[in-house]
Design a protein that fits this description.
Length: 104
């Protein structure tokens, strides 16, 4: 056995970098959880390293989604022929006759 000590696998810089990345991810998910944002959206849209900026990004994302939803609801679900009877009352028989008796 040797008296020499093995070099550490991780340097202090590696540990500090991993800690910073973990803290950033925790802040991102904390903000996302507080505002009801999915993990996929948090990973894609919440990119800041500062928690205040993450909150601002989350609020902007939610405002954009709310504006889009309001615009969709403002027009309503308009179906122009809803409730109207078709002009052809024979149930499509004239179409079938036109197809199968076209040679007459």
């Amino acid at each position: 056995m040797s008296d020499q000590h093995a070099e550490p696998v991780f340097t202090q810089a590696d540990i500090d970098q991993a800690r910073a990345a973990a803290n950033q991810a925790a802040a991102r998910y904390r903000v996302a959880l507080d505002r009801g944002i999915s993990r996929a959206d948090a990973d894609l849209f919440l990119t800041s390293t500062d928690e205040e900026q993450l909150a601002a990004q989350a609020d902007a994302l939610l405002a954009r989604d709310a504006a889009r939803d309001a615009a969709q609801l403002a027009g309503g679900n308009y179906v122009p022929t809803e409730g109207k009877q078709p002009k052809n009352q024979n149930g499509g028989a004239s179409v079938a006759q036109a197809l199968f008796h076209a040679d007459r």
